[in-house]
Design a protein that fits this description.
Blueprint (H helix, E strand, L loop, with lengths): L4 H9 L9 H8 L10 H12 L3 H8 L3 H8 L7 H12 L1
Length: about 90
């Protein structure tokens, strides 16, 4: 993962959160995803983005929206446009 052992210790003790870009390597190292199961759409979007190791900006670009809109979705704002609902469905199933 190319991080200092103290950094990993801080993650384990909950002092800091690992950057999203490190999550795929953490999951591979542990052999499982240490985050709770995603249930809501917002949680599922965040979990998928984390699994990809993407920033909000990268996920938003993949779906074709701006990062502010993506951030609002991750905070629980409804996705009202059918076009975006279809793009999100495709993103989550990929």
């Amino acid at each position: 993962m190319q991080v200092d052992p103290t950094t990993v210790l801080h993650w384990e003790k909950g002092y800091t959160e690992p950057p999203t870009s490190k999550v795929p390597a953490i999951v591979a190292c542990l052999g499982y995803d240490p985050y709770p199961e995603a249930k809501t759409l917002a949680e599922r979007l965040r979990a998928k983005r984390r699994a990809m190791g993407w920033s909000i900006r990268q996920a938003a670009k993949a779906v074709g929206v701006d990062s502010t809109t993506w951030g609002q979705w991750e905070r629980g704002r409804a996705v009202k446009w059918p076009r975006y609902q279809e793009q999100i469905k495709a993103f989550l199933s990929a």
